[in-house]
Protein 1
Amino acid sequence: MLLLSTIREERERLLEGLAKRNFNDAAATLDRIVALDDERKSSQTALDQLLSEQKALSKDIGDLFKSGKAADANALKAKVADLKEQSSVVEDRFKEVKLELETELLGLPNLAHTSVPFGNTEEDNEVYKELSGTIPDLGEDAKPHWDLSDQYGIFDLKLGVKLTGAGFPVFTGQGARLQRALINFFLDEASNAGYTEYVPPLMVNEDSARGTGQLPDKEGQMYYVTEDDLYLIPTAEVPLTNIYRDVILKEEDFPIKMCGYTPCFRREAGSYGADVKGLNRVHQFDKIEIVQVEHPDKSYDTLMDMCNHIEGLLQKLELPYRILRLCAGDLGFASALTFDFEVYSAAQKRWLEVSSVSNFETFQTNRLKLRYRNEEGKTTLAHTLNGSALALPRIIAALLENNQTSDGITIPDVLRRYTGFDKIK
RNA sequence: GGAGGAGUGGCAGAGCGGUUGAAUGCACUAGUCUUGAAAACUAGCAUACUUUACGGUAUCGGGGGUUCGAAUCCCUCCUCCUCCGCCA
């Protein structure tokens, strides 16, 4: 959520930013927001005035009763009743305006960082770092990971359909073991980089879903447990970031570094075709997420640190990868700057997104009421950042495909102490 | 799931219809004293919105209600504790 002060004071910058994001009717929306805020202020002032009078009179009534002047007291009562009627009208309008204002504000995306390239689709994303690592020469009979899975018994999608439905893979044998190895590897790497490990709940309440920006709007992406009004988390970002909802930090608390492994649940409504084949897109998958809460002055340095961490993981796994800087049109609603990490799948001959790292600046913290006290003792919004480090399914897909040999699938060195085997056969 | 008890400032803990945004203690910050520290003393110490300012309003788990007036009474939801039931 953008700040009202920004909307009032930096209108031109905002209009440019919204245009970059192809936001329609930006000027009219901003005008409407300012008008609503003006009305909110004036109705609040009016309401406060009426309430103040009521309070003063109530005090008088008490005094009059005590001194036995019941008749005078009753006369004042009538006056208060009249004021109360007036104030309830003003209050209704006040609440209405506040709600409208909030709805308008929630509809505005975050302002893109100046470095974000112009563009509308993923075609316009900037290649921030070209291919790094080597694409293996697999020859003509290279198999995609779903065929390899059938051959070696790594995961079973049909069994998932029987148990649950499409998009819920069942990992088996060495495949399950590989999964567990990756989780432990990623968690160890995050811990070594100073992130505190959490095991958060896999379901969150509405306040949490709102805090990180899943609600309103994206409820269609989350599984919802109606009986208890809970959402299955689409990413560990939600519970981890919400740990600091309604918190006022001290400056010396920065940076706050958290990591967590969780399954993630996404409905992925509307997906189809080659995109969803095999492990490319599933409803339940495992991911290790890193989250930081940072001082506004340092958040962009921190973003680069997080990128370096993720890059290190891909290098250790010996996977060919590249880094994209998302263009304005592809940028998430809440993000100011996002880097996507993609690994190259030699058998599918395409790039697979395995991580997304973003700085949200104050967009989330404004909703979360996550602040710190600055040198002057004023409460100020902190910045939040997060990134996948990493999401498993496409890493597994890439490992299977890129490391296939005639006598099995080679496990990268760093993983062998976790898997306990060096080949899937 | 059933019965009972409880939720007050960073913490502990009063207040249980009328100058209570809230006693007191601890913690914290600044000052005095001291070579320095401790102790003692003095002062300050919730958040948000609003006002040029003085100030005003809201918030005592959340929401709603009764009343001229609610932290205090009523309803409802949430959370915690105790006991019972069920259970990995």
Protein 2
Amino acid sequence: MVHGGKPRPMKGIRQLAEHLDISIGTVSRALNGKPDVNEETRKRVLAAAEQLGYVANQSGRSLRQGTTNVIGLMIQSSKETVENSDNFFLTVTGGLQSVFSRHNLDLIMLPCPHDEDPYEYLKRMVARRVVDALILSETQRVDKRFDMLAKAKIPFAALGRSLSGVQHPWTDLDFDGVANCAIDRLVAHGHRRIAISTPASDINLGFVFVEGYRRALERHGIPYDPALVIRAKSSEQGGYQVADELLRLDDRPTAVLLIYELMAIGLYRRVMEAGIVPGRDIAVVGFREAPRAKFLQPTLTCFRTSLHDLGVELAEILLSSMPAYNHFYPNTRLQRTWPLELVPGESDAFQLTTRK
Amino acid sequence: MVHGGKPRPMKGIRQLAEHLDISIGTVSRALNGKPDVNEETRKRVLAAAEQLGYVANQSGRSLRQGTTNVIGLMIQSSKETVENSDNFFLTVTGGLQSVFSRHNLDLIMLPCPHDEDPYEYLKRMVARRVVDALILSETQRVDKRFDMLAKAKIPFAALGRSLSGVQHPWTDLDFDGVANCAIDRLVAHGHRRIAISTPASDINLGFVFVEGYRRALERHGIPYDPALVIRAKSSEQGGYQVADELLRLDDRPTAVLLIYELMAIGLYRRVMEAGIVPGRDIAVVGFREAPRAKFLQPTLTCFRTSLHDLGVELAEILLSSMPAYNHFYPNTRLQRTWPLELVPGESDAFQLTTRK
DNA sequence: ACGCGCTCCGTAAACGTTTACGATACTATG
DNA sequence: CATAGTATCGTAAACGTTTACGGAGCGCGT
């Protein structure tokens, strides 16, 4: 039984303690920055820990204190979601982490498998107790997950508002504001028959988007026509399909508002097949800005925002709703819509001449 | 102290045991499917656990058995990576999970913050001991992470081969095979001056890609010209830049091989600005297939593969390298390149007429 | 000399599991 | 009936932390 030699891999705080010839209590206090420990011994402990490569076992720690210092971001990578949303999550993640890291919190992503019920998945993850708090995305119109988390008293914030019972913290892109702005612009250009695309799923953003569209129309005295609300997947194929439906309408719309900018690629393609050119015969406005939109001809009018900053906001909202952290973020609004900036393109830059 | 009434939230296995009036040992054995427990009582235990919503505390469990049943997928969301699509990761994730879930393993994603050194980040995550094994992606040419994990004796597999010392399990797309096939095709069409794009970073796939390109060229007796290897970011902008550089070359190439299919969008745009049309004046071949490629005019010749199946393979490789699971996957090759299938498009479907 | 407060540290009890070990009751076998 | 074997269960010791509690030593004022 060799005892000296190379510093063998640390087994636990116990070995570190007996190597320093002090008690484990003191070692623990030294490592955790507790006040009642001599500065001198703290230095020794930290040095020894560094040298021997000791690092606290997280299981033991979180068993004892019931906390893990990990925040989970649940993402439901449904087939549809996978097709769009490329950099969306990773960009938001960057913003989240920039805040969390200041508090020594780590972020992990919890991807719900396609074939599993998100609610059951979340239950499993909560039961694992590997996260202290959660960020939910892709919120449904009514979302059982919120009620469950509220009942389980685990803090959470949502990326996207919802109608669910509990008042929960969230940030959300300003979907109705965007719809509002787009309609104002299109109406000013002479359009009165304006279609809108919305996701086929129960995700809440679609409802909010259409609601804003409806209110804006009514403000201009234009009746709301359900036939102009086209449900389609948020992908290029979806855009193609939207155009297809548009062309089939009797009183063909002169403008269309897309929930997802990539759809414009498919839409352009389909209408051009029909001899209709975007930006001249039909106005197109897209939600959010993708780098790809810049490569469309004609360039797409859309809305820009910083997803990174949205992540920052979301993290702060979550933390301010957690007792242990809320003093860092004293007066934070717990619900916040995130503004977007209009990026004018050529796709709607024409005045509609009343042709009939 | 009320004792009856609503089933209050379970505190632990102890309460569950005394509610059933049996010992905690038996309860634990019943829940974990151990053999020495009466089928009758097992049923009772499972029923009670279900009814009271009991679920084992993961910290306690993993403290005791030193295992967490969680696999981590580390992703370095570098700025550049974010610009490309993360549906890559989400798709692979689907394949991984379909395997892991059979073994009651959960997958979490560990996104390394932009501003943190991936190596340090990984060290922190390993220290947390929240994962039993790891999957690394975006492997560098030489990657310190592998050595660290090997030394720490934590199992891992990589998405992408590397030159690092240790023989580690990996799957990788068949970059050199693709380069090979593309060159054969282009040469058959009369091209001899063929450019190639490669990432600007130290990620290994670029080296493998160029290596395959080089060997294929030499097989055809075409000298390798370093000037034709263009480093650029894997984005539309990068494609634009590649085209820019191409146009600046004296003896202008008649074909180009792109490491990332989205680059074709920018490349098309730039060459068309110069009056050169893809598929007639210049041949373009892209690596991997994106849905977007279908919307390009002319359609892009590229290579298709199932990233989901690649995930399946990767998961199996990882598990077969773990003592506790390897009997499930007896004779699995621990290193495997993943084949891709050619998807012929119009972008290289012309015979080069020798023009000079 | 005594008591008090302060600083620093050791002791031991939790946290919620799993599991080796032994105990009990019952069955089969001689 | 004695004994061995089997099926089932209870007991208690781990796993590695954190932390409440108390104790030792010291300075200081009375």
